[in-house]
Amino acid sequence: MTSPLADASAGLGLRRALLDAFAASSDAGIADSIIDFLECAPENWIGVGGRLGDALQSLGKRFPLTCHGLSLSLGGVEPLDETFLERVRLFLDANNVSLYSEHLSYSADDGHLYDLMPIPFTEEAVEHVAARIRRVQDVLGRRIAVENVSYYAAPYQAMAEVDFVIAVLDAADCDLLLDVNNIYVNAINHGYDAQDFLTRMPTQRIAGYHIAGHFDEAEDLKIDTHGADVKQDVWALLSAAYRLHGVRPTLLERDFNFPPLPVLLGEVQQIRALQQTASAHTTASAHD
């Protein structure tokens, strides 16, 4: 049976560009002492064999794996691809994956769009998305977590983003993967208060956190690139999340512009340091 991750755990997103660095013996011992888990996209690894498949199997023996999907298109109108879902289920089971998450968005319309498109924030959309999430959970035989996404166009908003996210979680009875960088980016781009959004998130549904870097296009426009170091304001928001909702498994995402592995490990260590500070504060408060 798959064991859940410890709440105080820090992970790194697995990208193929990092495989050689992980394989290097000089990095391996350091990485193993800092990283508690790796996260991969099932779409990038299902059915992959040869050298890459062997590399994943090797890493799976060193680190617990979590999965973050890219293509379920939970907000889409195309029928769910249940054949693909069965392949995901087999992949999750074979790799002892304890946490599987997807994006609260849509990514297909008569074919894959290769992007995460925003969902209208309406009651009708809540019911539509929630029904699809419930079906996904039935097929997979497990709860999933959905991630709050960054978005730049707002097609129709009959309700605020925060209310939409909460409504979907309740109607679907699923968990939340809380992306702290996305809260920060959206708050700047759409003019809402990040701290208020964070405060209103349902503590009991948070299965984990994501954190990443973004690009400062302008003072009032931030782009969620996953291609830069995490900004100090985002670190501060993650610290606030720990204080408000408690420490949960937290993953650093980096998709390109990769620095040397020790630099990425330094950011993973920053996650661990914030978790330790939050845990110490909780312990001290309990003794007061």
CATH fold name, please? Answer: TIM Barrel
Class based on secondary structure composition and strand pairing: alpha/beta
CATH C-level label: Alpha Beta
Find the CATH superfamily: Divalent-metal-dependent TIM barrel enzymes
CATH architect. name: Alpha-Beta Barrel
- Give the % helix: 40-55%
Q: Give the averaged pLDDT, no decimals.
A: 91
Specify the number of helices: 10
Tell me the fraction of residues in β-strands, as a range. Answer: 15-25%
* Oligomeric state of the chains present here: single chain
Q: What is the strand and helix layout of this fold?
A:
Layout: E1 10-13, H1 19-23, H2 25-34, E2 37-40, H3 50-62, E3 65-68, H4 82-94, E4 100-103, E5 106-108, E6 112-117, H5 123-140, E7 145-147, H6 161-172, E8 175-179, H7 180-190, H8 194-200, E9 206-212, E10 215-218, E11 221-223, H9 232-245, E12 250-253, H10 261-287
Parallel strand pairs: 1-2, 1-12, 2-3, 3-4, 4-7, 7-8, 8-9, 9-12
Antiparallel strand pairs: 5-6, 10-11
Give a nutshell description of this structure.
The protein is α/β, with parallel strands linked by helices. It contains ten helices and twelve strands.
